[in-house]
Amino acid sequence: MAPSKKPSTKNTSSDSKKQKKEKLFHPQSRKAGQLVRSHIRKSKLEDLARKRSHKRLSQVDVLGFFYSTLPPEGELSLDELHLIVRDIWLTRHDKDLEQERAKRRKGRPKSVKEIQIEELNVREAEEYRTGLEVPDLTHGVNVEIFRKWDQKEAGYLQMLRYVRISSGDQEKVVVSRPGQHPRLVSAIKAVATMEATPSGDAEAMDTMG
């Protein structure tokens, strides 16, 4: 009977050495530098992705609030939009703040939650004073587009028109983002065309009409 052949370890040994050569290199080598840079870049991208995700969620929450204030028909007046921001949006945490204060014993320091709510209230009040960006609920077409939102898709919110309003000057409205929806884009182009039309041509058109 022929002696059994021992399994060859040549290839295995060779593969193992090859893997070690691929994985082990000098810390100051070019390959090490490439891997470090790759790792740093990946970490930065992951961090940015987390921040974007958090921002989207926050945006959806904020826009969800204003979505809930949409009137059944038509749009809001500027005074009504200010009222919603001043009396509802800025006071939405007041109940939680009162509860935190009620739980705190006399002479005890404020809880972390109480401090956070107070800081948030101050920050949002200042933002409203200097210029708070909100969906333009005074614009009929924009309100119609907003009503079609499924209250989930954050990307859809880029379609909307946004304005900045402030408690410092409640008559002033600044368009911060005109909106990407085709209907809004068409309206902007139409206004631009009318503004570009010479007054003489406009008068001639009126006369012809």
Automatic annotation (TrEMBL):
Annotated Low complexity bias: 1-14
InterPro entries noted in UniProt: Tma16, Tma16_sf
Superkingdom classification of source: Eukaryota
Annotated spans, Disordered: 1-40
A GO term from the CC aspect: nucleus
Family, similarity comment: Belongs to the TMA16 family.
Protein name per the record: Translation machinery-associated protein 16
Organism per entry: Thelephora terrestris
